[in-house]
Amino acid sequence: MQSNEYKIDKVIKSKPRGALVFPDDFTKIGSSESIRKALQRLENKGAIKRVAQGIYVRPKIDPYIGEVLPSAEEVATGIAKRDKIRLVPTGVYALNALGLSTQIPIKLVFLTDGAPREIKLSKRSIKLKKTTPKTLLAKGEISSLVIQALREIGKDKISAEEELKILALLKKENQKDLAHDLKLAPVWIRKIMQKAIQQ
Fold first, then answer.
1. Torsion sign over Cα 179, 183, 189, 191
2. How far is CA 24 from CA 127, 145, 151, 153, 159, in A?
3. How far is Cα 39 from Cα 118, in angstroms, rounded to an integer?
4. What is the Cα–Cα distance from 81 to 73, expressed in whole angstroms?
5. Whole-model pTM?
6. E-strand spans in the chain?
7. Cα dist from 84 to 42, 80, 112, 167, whole Å
8. Residue 173 to residue 185: CA distance in whole angstroms
9. Alpha-carbon gap, residue 70 to 61, rounded angstroms
């Protein structure tokens, strides 16, 4: 009979390198305790790397720098997919994602409809903050980021340069999504976003 470790290793090797692996992926193979031990043994052998508690990866290999671990952003996306939750980047991370800030946040903060928690990575962390369903109703990828970025900047604190950048980005957004998301934004943010439609 094949061991759980062998079966889990086989499943991991069938996935592309860089794909995140969670203990829940193997519930059909054995008990949670036996899966945990098998993953630990595979980690000790160097077959997989532990990215955070309960999150593993078979790293991509770069010819120059060797093993490449997933970014904090990729880990957050993987968690959202696994838990079937929605995530909206907020704060400094939203500003950075839009190119309005060069500051790379050590802590990525997301609003979510899932359980609030913090996931510690080696050098960065992911914080999930519970929010109201309305906050997550935005359809547009750009417009939802813009709403959060403007909240971070604050009312009456946006510079002319930042506003021009935001309007240029919003023009790339699907106009139907933008019109939908406008209704979800606070009045002062709506006034800025409307300019992208009027122009």
1. positive
2. 21, 31, 36, 39, 47
3. 22
4. 12
5. 0.86
6. 20-21, 49-52, 55-57, 60-62, 66-68, 87-89, 107-112, 117-120, 125-130
7. 27, 6, 11, 31
8. 15
9. 11
Looking from the CA of 139 toward its CB, the CA atoms found within 13 Å total: 11
Token digits of residue 19 = 């794909």
Do 21 and 15 touch, CB atoms closer than 8 A? yes
Query: Please, which residues have CB within 8 angstroms of residue 186's CB and are 6 or more apart in sequence?
Result: 151
- Per-residue pLDDT tens over the stretch 92-137: 999 999 999 999 899 999 999 999 999 999 889 999 999 998 889 9
CB contact at 8 A, 181 and 197: no
The domains found in the chain, sorted by start residue, are 4-68 (1.10.10), 72-198 (no CATH)
Buried b (16+ CB within 10 A) or exposed e, 101-129: beeebeebbbbbbeeeeebebeebbbbbe
The helix/strand/coil state of 98 is coil
- Find the length of the chain: 199
For 92, the token pair is 């400094």
